[in-house]
Amino acid sequence: MSPIRVGLLGIGTVGSGTFNVLKRNQEEIRRRAGRGIEITMVADLDVARAQALVGDGVLVVDDARKVVASPDIDIVIELIGGYGIAKALVLEAIESGKHVVTANKALLAVHGTEIFAAAQRKGVMVAFEAAVAGGIPIIKALREGLSANSIQWIAGIINGTTNFILSEMRDKGLDFDVVLKEAQKLGYAEADPTFDIEGVDAAHKATLMSAIAFGIPVQFDKAYVEGITSLAAQDIRYAEQLGYRIKLLGITKRVAGGIELRVHPSLIPAKRLLANVEGAMNAVVVHGDAVGTTLYYGKGAGSEPTASAVIADLVDISRLHTADPEHRVPHLAFQPDEMSDLAIVPMSEIVTSYYLRLNVADEAGVLASVTGILAEAGISIDAVLQREADEVGGEGSTQTDLIILTHDCVEAKMNEAIAQMQALPTVLAPITRIRKEELA
Amino acid sequence: MSPIRVGLLGIGTVGSGTFNVLKRNQEEIRRRAGRGIEITMVADLDVARAQALVGDGVLVVDDARKVVASPDIDIVIELIGGYGIAKALVLEAIESGKHVVTANKALLAVHGTEIFAAAQRKGVMVAFEAAVAGGIPIIKALREGLSANSIQWIAGIINGTTNFILSEMRDKGLDFDVVLKEAQKLGYAEADPTFDIEGVDAAHKATLMSAIAFGIPVQFDKAYVEGITSLAAQDIRYAEQLGYRIKLLGITKRVAGGIELRVHPSLIPAKRLLANVEGAMNAVVVHGDAVGTTLYYGKGAGSEPTASAVIADLVDISRLHTADPEHRVPHLAFQPDEMSDLAIVPMSEIVTSYYLRLNVADEAGVLASVTGILAEAGISIDAVLQREADEVGGEGSTQTDLIILTHDCVEAKMNEAIAQMQALPTVLAPITRIRKEELA
């Protein structure tokens, strides 16, 4: 049988990884897929560099539209990124009846509904394993492996840059700014790291996982997004003393009022496997009603790990494209006419537990007034850690840190309680609030 | 579209879990699969009990052959277990053109070649996600999720009973026999635990994973199998002091001479995620050339976790059965005419590192003679831990424990060196040898 012909849009880090792995493992992949899979056409603005990478046997063009329109291409891989040109090219590829493989989480988290609907109409597949957690086959696990389950919640470390930064902050006791610079030097963070450190990248991925897990449309605009830029080394240290680690988690959860969808730093118990995912690695915990808790771990980025996911999608398409479109794996796990309209719960309505750090005057009655406010709000306390003033502010200091872990409460109540505590004259600095997930 | 009609052979723990989850999540599963999936016929020797479990709407028979032969059944789930009747029924189901889902690792590890060939001839699927690591979708990850990779090695905790026993031995410092009795009381070990504690169950699963990872036929008879019955509490303690934990691992590895396939207790670095998989949980580490190291974690047994895998297979079949048979996912990941004849390497030829515990006379020259033998054999030493005689044998003791960690060497050389050390008059008891895997 003749090989599947693939056109590649953009041959940067992931594109060249895809080309190299397809070439290196071509025999093994052909033996699995039952037919060859070959990149026969590449579009890149830098034609000379691209041609040098792929060799003479592959047609390189500078206009991606030529690939998308070519009658000699069966599948288009979109690795351009962003919303603009990438979106237009993906839609054109679909219109010309081509299957699409993409690693573009931003595009799908924002425009997925439009793109998947177009693919559905044309009877083609848009595969995106590489868009979430790089080489970890988490989309496949959620969409196929756990299809028996009513999924209850997902919590994932799905951004390697921030996990590297948090691991370094903990290991070396350094503050965020210092570690970010180191991460940029090492290539773990980009020159403009905003999307990573502000949680936007993780929120794109969490949005895709929430859609697949719960059968809801992608709704990035409803996600709560909080990054790690204001995390202080001392919070990581205090958390550690209380038996917790701080990770940037993407969380999506089925609750009475709908679906929670949120990205923020979270304390998690140090003994959980997820707490021990270090450096730039990714891991996703999925809890299903039948299977219980499962975890998926691996590299979340990088040339060949991401290529591994891109190529797995190519193999899947080469297998499934002969199945009638009604019976393929649906893009968002549920049949398009069987999606749910469960609402994303506003952040003020979510229920979780909290870590609070209050910089307070070292005088009698402070703890009583703070805990009085929490008691008034019906928020019960799990643990308190009061530091000696000397330890925090040096000898003779008149201020100290008061750390409180709470049990579960509604976020709105916590917001009110924090406002009241903040107004106390003995609370000397803005209160730090970090959410806490037991993941039990 | 009319529902897929499923016949269930054997309604014990997993069978009733499958029935219950299919019923509880029927709407969600139908929304995913695009059509209903219903158990319409059950075979069980205890008809009355089975009928009480499934209610009046389901036909219950005592003769499994009636299900296998029924024209009203599309997919047969085999949950009888064992080789005899189960094998005959699976083959009959295939002959009558039915797809089969089974959790029977023993059957497939031993008779898989015959069964998959029969399925291939008839154009039906034999799905077996539930046969390895229960609810963890590891077969799907290996066969589809990592299809881009040349898989290098797999190491898994794939037997919950033995992992529970080892976790308890470590936590409580107890010996094997004591913990086994406790595990039996708690239902974590069967009345006859032989298959679990002798490593046979893990070897069945490792055999299936090796076939899928490397495209070789199932070869359970070539697997090296060693259980945990001779592990002593002090070895777990010494390993801990050296920074390792002891786990029963199923290992399969691509090496120059072919494929390693072995199950035995192994020291692994305590900081690895795999070392922190506790209790009855399972986890599998897969290392691919492109993706690097990935890990999959979850419950490896139990009613609903296993049902989760059985039902995922039902959904897969309901999707894939419209694809032409040449393009479905091959049973063993590689197309049947593209299997490899790589040989399973004999145990004497494997290369690994070792933990040795020698009970020796507490006198001058012992360490020199022992290390001399290792040096002579070209085996280099990574670490030595010599206990004070008092600590080991009590005050005034004249014997002590000598623990040695080695670097990599060929098993045959280690066998020879152990025989020579054992012959020393100062070595007072049989030498304990446990293999060590760095999993780096």
User: Strand count, sense and closure of the main sheet of chain A?
Assistant: 11 strands, mixed
**CATH domain topology of the largest domain in chain A:** Dihydrodipicolinate Reductase, domain 2
- Structural class of chain A comes to alpha/beta
| CATH class label of the largest domain in chain A | Alpha Beta
What oligomeric assembly is this protein in? Answer: homodimer
Please tell me the CATH architecture of the largest domain in chain A by its name.
Answer: 2-Layer Sandwich
CATH superfamily of the largest domain in chain A: Dihydrodipicolinate Reductase, domain 2
- Unreliable spans of chain A are none
* Alpha carbon gap, first and last residue of chain A: 50 Å
Most extensive interface between two protein chains, with residue counts: A-B, 68 and 68 residues
Write the topology of this structure:
The structure is a homodimer of 440-residue chains.
Chain A: E1 4-9, H1 13-24, H2 26-33, E2 37-43, H3 47-54, E3 59-61, H4 64-69, E4 75-78, H5 84-95, E5 99-102, H6 105-122, E6 126-127, H7 138-145, E7 151-157, H8 160-172, H9 176-186, H10 194-197, H11 200-214, E8 224-225, H12 233-241, E9 244-255, E10 258-269, E11 281-288, E12 292-299, H13 303-320, E13 351-361, H14 366-376, E14 381-386, H15 389-393, E15 399-406, E16 409-410, H16 411-422, E17 432-436
Parallel strand pairs in A: 1-2, 1-4, 2-3, 4-5, 5-6, 8-10, 10-17
Antiparallel strand pairs in A: 7-9, 7-11, 9-10, 11-12, 13-15, 13-16, 13-17, 14-15
Helix pairs in contact in A: 1-13, 5-6, 6-11, 8-9, 14-16
